[in-house]
Amino acid sequence: MNLAQKGYSWKKLSDLYKLTPEPETHQASVMFPGFEGLWCKLIMSVTAFATTENSVALIYGPLNCNWAIRNFKTTDYALFYGNAFLHMPTINMDQNIIVMGGIDKLIKGIKEVDKHYKPDIIGIFDSCAPALIGDDIETAIQKAQSDCHATLKYFPSAGLAAPWLGKSIEQIASEYVSMMQPATKIPDTVNIIGQYKEKFCTKAHQKKCKFHDYLDEATELTKYIEALDLKLHRVLISGGPKYIKTASEASVNMISCPTWGYPIAEKMHEQFEIPFGRHSIPVGFSATARWITELAQMTNRQDKAEQFIRSQKTLIEPLFNKVKSLTSSRIALIECGRNTQTSFARAMALGRMTQELGMTPFFFNAHPLEIKAKHYDVNYFLYDNFDPDFLFGPYPYQKSVSIPDILDNLNLSENDFIYFTEDVFPFARSDDFDVSNAPRVETGVHLRRIKDATSRGMGFSGTKSILIQIEQALKTAMRKTRPSLYARLTGKFYEFENENYRT
Amino acid sequence: MKIIEHNKAFDDRIYPGAFIGATFVASGVKNSIIIYHGYLGCNIESVHMRSDTIPGGFYTPIIATGLNENDSIYGGLSKLKDTLKEVCRRKYDIIWVLTGDATSITADDIHSLSSLDIIPAGTKLISLDVPGFLGGIRKGTDIALAKLLENTAVSIEKTNSICLVAPHLMGIKSHPIEAKEIKSLLNRCNILTEHILSKQLHIEDLDDIVKNRYFLSLCWESMPELENFCQKHSIELLNPDIPLPIGIANTEEWLLAIADIFNNREKSQNILLEDSKILKDQLKHNYNYSWLSTLYNEKTCSIYGHSQFAVSLARCFYYDFNIKPKVIAILSETEEAIEKSKRLLSDMANYTDFTLLINPDYYSYLQHINEARIDFAVGSIQDKPLCTGANIAHMSLSGFYFFNNYNFIPWPYTGITGTLSLLTELGFLMEKAFYYEKYWKNYAYKPAET
Lengths: 503, 450
Hints:
The complex is a heterodimer.
Chain A: E1 9-12, H1 13-19, H2 26-31, H3 41-49, E2 55-61, H4 63-81, E3 90-92, H5 95-100, H6 103-117, E4 121-126, H7 128-133, H8 137-145, E5 151-155, H9 165-175, E6 189-193, H10 203-208, H11 217-227, E7 231-236, H12 241-245, E8 252-255, H13 258-272, H14 285-298, H15 302-327, E9 331-335, H16 345-356, E10 360-364, H17 368-372, H18 375-383, E11 389-392, H19 403-410, E12 417-420, E13 440-441, H20 459-476, H21 485-488
Parallel strand pairs in A: 2-3, 2-4, 4-5, 6-7, 6-8, 9-10, 9-12, 10-11, 12-13
Antiparallel strand pairs in A: 1-11
Helix pairs in contact in A: 3-4, 3-9, 6-8, 9-13, 13-18, 14-15, 15-20
Chain B: E1 2-5, H1 18-26, E2 32-37, H2 40-49, E3 62-64, H3 69-74, H4 77-87, E4 94-99, H5 101-105, E5 124-128, H6 137-149, E6 159-165, H7 175-188, E7 193-197, E8 212-217, H8 224-232, E9 236-238, H9 248-262, H10 265-283, H11 287-296, E10 300-306, H12 307-321, E11 324-331, H13 335-349, E12 355-358, H14 362-372, E13 376-379, H15 384-389, E14 393-396, H16 418-434, H17 437-442
């Protein structure tokens, strides 16, 4: 069966969004049978909290939840983003607590954690089990607070709530605003909002942590803030309680990741009247220029911005034009994280850049329910007049639509496209689809590491790095011989077995 | 030996829940499928722990019912039935249904599924209530093994053979390779070992698994369900006071203790001698080995891991390499494993001082290793940032096969020849611990500014 027979068709993002029911509804379950989501709110909540400093995450749930979080926290956030080891004391719920409740043990646990670790802040996170047995966690925290040195902050995180990533993040992100207090504004200061995973607090911190040449995004965006003679105030989510509390002193909020950024920025606007920029995730020359221009307009620095952007353009233009001449008739095949719910905003930001290069982006392996749950992201890209084609259909979670089927559906041959992967397990098969004959650009955020560039390709440095990657991928695909080991594992192992090579 | 038991209202250690133990067992049986009835955060953990993510494993699909908040109010049984119908379109030997915390609390009646007429003839349905709050990975393993063996096994004539049990509970990241090595070592000694519960197991294997006179547990925890099964089928569940076969002294002790049960000590000694030749050929007169063995000699370390692995490795380091483990942190679910750990460390305690931490929280572990001023730490990938963050060189060896383990060479750490793998790992660790890398960066040549 081809893609159409399997119920798939290309839709504009705006149409896909309208056609997809709200994830919580029965209609959604009917339209997309099978399971929904991939991770849980608890994993997302704690891993986000892990970027705060001198903090301890107290988990109210079984020890298994601790293990589940630690796996993600360590193998991704610590190893590839430098997050420190997060101490996660856990009130190890057993069958007795399930029957009798565990509030007394929780109160005792909070006090012991405060004494043992001496943290600035204890984030308290509940899992599915306490949420279902209905333990009154907020009252327990109130009771414990008077005996604790640390600030206690409750993050409702039951894994059963909001399995769709966007919804889950929206609920978690807003919690950080409740840690802030009204404050007098400091003129000409800017917060970067929606930074996630990367460890960044202050310029001094940045200097101290500059062990290598792989840039974090906040560092890149700070360059633009400073180029306009503005001052970076806070990067959220980052820092300790005092740092977060005083984020309300900034004059302007600018957004990096829309999924994390908008819920915080909107709430800060509502509570502290801090204006925020609409533009986010600036990947590509024009998108970066728009992000800077918007900041300049909000702070009356248009001349400075124009001058700065012009200087950057001079540096990047020759490479940009060269790559554009190679790509302008091609299709950008953008795989949204193998349908694992990870990649939407960054895939869109990349797609917007490919359009700038004269390519036509087609997005696939993005579950419609996950897109529906990321309404902030969708609204932003539509506001920015980017409404590309998405493959819409009855996706099962975590199961990718086959790339040969997509090539067949779009009637593409190997010289017609560039494949952008966005995650691990990229498609490859030595028989006909490999880096040696089909250009593949690695854009998965965790493993894409390019010196002097940000991992998602944000800003001018990121844009330059993507241009170089595209140029290199096209060159490599001209080889047409000696396929990579990765592709040989799924296709013909030797070239003598494969008539498509060396013919 | 100073012993410190964890005694706090909280825990912080790496310890998967019961459904992960069940997943390890289930995904070791070929042509099985697992339906994880619950919420997705737990499901993704079982997906990462199933057989096919591990070298030498095979694909066992895990389908989640993927419940949402509404299902926790109204129940998720209808989604489970729909999933089961979908699964039954293909013929599997076993369909496993595992619950997590929430579905266990809402008490969806998973045991009623066996009465549905959609289950194809010849397919076994095993429904297990194995939430995280029920216990740890040992508990889930015990429950799943007992259920797997229930009814399938028939009484047949005994053979003088061994069935290995629960290699994933050894707590070493390369457990599939180790299980294979241990099986091979026993067979070379003419100690017949055909089955591993459960690795690369076929459904047909279950029919004659009770023919084994012995089940040999590769973990030290008690498994009451399995003990009941063994008693019922006149199988002796071996769990003697011997270390795992890691390193020379441990392997000699382990193999000869088992050989004595089978009355073939002489053959086993010959195999040990045969393997020792491989080591001698590789290491004797080897300048690099001499260098390395002098470098690691008398150095101090900490070890963090499941009791049987941590204790066995500590003994190996001390007896074979003269490395002094100053802090040994053991993870354990049952008193049996804790007591055995103490017994198996008691001899070593006569000659060297160390602290035994029982189920410590990570912060306490860190405080102890800082205080002990150790040279390097051995643990799992999950505690690498903890130790490295304290400026202590770290090697990931314990735990389970998980992300960012980049050893693709199918050579074991266990057995006599496995010592070569341990030495290679120690070599990498010595680089991290003792090379003055930061100096190279600081004092690197910089041409004069013109």
